[in-house]
Design a protein that fits this description.
The chain is of the alpha/beta class. 36% of the residues lie in helices and 15% in strands. It is built from 13 helices and 13 strands. A 6-stranded parallel sheet has the order 10-9-6-11-12-13, with helices on both faces. The protein has a 5-stranded parallel sheet with strand order 3-2-1-4-5. A two-stranded antiparallel sheet has the order 7-8. Helix 1 crosses helix 11, helix 7 crosses helix 10 and helix 8 packs parallel to helix 13.
C-alpha cells in the first residue's frame, strides 16, 4: 500500500524546539521513504527547516490563539491539510488551539500519532527532547502505512544544513563589518529573558549580568587578543546587548549584531565561529547541531531534559538545584574555565 500524502509533523515550537525536532523529521523520512511536511509557527521555522533534504512543505500559522474567523493563516493551513490527502500525522503539540485547528481540517484519528504527557516520562525515565521525539517517531498510526526498518539512534543528534548562498552572504557581511578571522559568539538572551528589548527582571532564572559577560570577554581576549566577539540576539535585544558592550568599555573588538542576524546568517556564523557562550536558549541547540564548541548556562530548566546535544564539544553549567537554580549564580570563573577547555575547531 502506498501513501497518499507524505508524513506530516505538527509542531508550533520555539527556535530550539524546532532544532530538536529535526531528529524526528529525519527518522520519519527514513521510515516512510518520503520527504516530511511540517505544520508550524514562528519566523524561524521555515529558515531552520527548508534547507534540509528531508523536508517537503512547511506550512506556517501566524497565530493559533487568534479566533479562527480573524486569522487567514489558519484558513490557509486548514485548506492545505484538507488537500493533502491521507497519510501519517505526528502531532507533537498538546495545546487545545492546535488540536482544534487539526479538527477543523477533518484529519482521520486513525492517521494520527498524538504525543501525550504520558509519552514524555511514562516509564519514570527523564529523557532529552530529541530522545523523546525518536520514541514517538517510532510509533505507528492505527492505519497501516508501510514503513522501513530503521535504527533510530543514528538520528539522535539534531541536524541543520547551511546553503552555499548563506555562506556567501555571511562572507560579505563579515567583510563589511571587519569580522574576518576568529569570532567568538555570545548569546545572552532568550525569549523569556527579554521582552521588547528590556530585561524583565534581574532575578530571572536565565539572567546573567553584563559585568559577568565582560569578564568572560576579557579572558577570551587574553587568550585570543585579535578575536572578535559577536553579541547575538534578536533586533529587540539590541539595547540589552549594548549594556554588555558598555560593561566591556566599548572595546572595538566586540560587535553588537542584534539587528543583523536573520536566521540563515546566524546559522552560517555558528558553522564557522570559534565557539559560543550562551544561556539556555535556541541558538545553543543550533550551535550543537552545527558542531560549534559550546558553553551553555542553565537556570531553572532541567539540563536532563533541555541540554543541547550534537557531534561537537558541549559543556553544560548550572541547573544543579532544579527550579531553584539561577544562571546569575554561575561564577564567571567557571564559564571562563569551561570555555578555555573547549577544543579549537580550527586547529589542524
Amino acid at each position: 500500500m502506498s501513501l497518499t500524502a507524505p508524513p506530516l509533523v505538527v509542531r508550533c515550537g520555539a527556535f530550539g524546539d524546532v532544532v530538536m525536532l529535526t531528529t524526528m523529521i529525519r527518522l520519519l523520512h527514513a521510515r516512510y521513504g518520503q520527504r516530511v511536511d511540517v505544520l508550524g509557527s514562528g519566523g524561524w521555522t521555515s529558515p531552520l527547516l527548508t534547507p534540509l533534504p528531508e523536508i517537503g512543505h512547511v506550512q506556517i500559522v501566524s497565530s493559533r490563539n487568534t479566533p479562527y474567523p480573524l486569522c487567514p493563516s489558519q484558513w490557509a493551513a486548514v485548506r492545505w491539510l484538507r488537500a493533502r490527502g491521507r497519510g501519517p500525522v505526528y502531532v507533537c503539540d498538546t495545546d487545545a488551539a492546535t488540536l482544534q485547528l487539526l479538527s477543523r481540517a477533518g484529519l482521520s484519528v486513525d492517521d494520527i500519532v498524538q504525543r501525550t504527557r504520558e509519552d514524555d516520562e511514562s516509564d519514570g525515565v527523564t529523557r532529552l527532547w530529541p530522545d523523546r521525539w525518536l520514541r514517538i517517531g517510532m510509533r505507528d498510526p492505527l492505519h497501516p502505512y508501510p514503513t522501513r526498518t530503521v535504527e533510530p539512534s543514528i538520528y539522535r543528534f539534531p541536524y541543520l544544513q547551511i546553503t552555499d548562498a548563506d555562506r556567501v552572504d555571511l562572507a560579505a557581511w563579515r567583510a563589511g563589518r571587519q569580522l574576518e578571522g576568529q569570532c567568538v559568539l555570545f548569546q545572552p538572551g532568550n525569549k523569556r529573558t527579554h521582552k521588547r528589548g528590556n530585561v524583565g527582571t534581574a532575578s530571572h532564572p536565565k539572567y546573567w549580568p553584563p559585568r559577568a559577560w565582560a569578564q568572560v570577554a576579557a579572558a577570551i581576549w587574553q587568550r585570543l587578543p585579535h578575536a572578535r566577539i559577536v553579541l547575538c540576539g534578536s533586533p529587540a535585544e539590541h539595547g540589552v546587548l549594548d549594556e554588555i558592550a558598555a560593561a566591556t568599555g566599548r572595546d572595538a573588538r566586540l560587535y553588537n549584531a542584534a539587528r543583523e542576524l536573520p536566521v540563515p546568517r546566524l546559522l552560517a556564523l555558528l558553522e564557522q565561529a570559534h565557539s559560543l557562550v550562551s544561556v539556555d536558549t535556541g541558538p545553543a541547540h543550533a550551535a550543537a547541531a552545527l558542531s560549534c564548541p559550546l558553553v551553555v548556562m542553565f537556570g531553572a530548566a532541567s539540563p536532563a531534559k533541555w541540554r543541547p546535544i550534537g557531534p561537537g564539544a558541549i559543556t553544560v553549567l548550572g541547573g544543579e538545584r532544579g527550579e531553584a537554580s539561577r544562571v546569575r549564580d554561575i561564577p564567571a570563573d567557571d564559564v571562563i574555565a569551561a570555555w578555555s577547555s573547549l577544543p579549537d575547531r580550527n586547529a589542524g
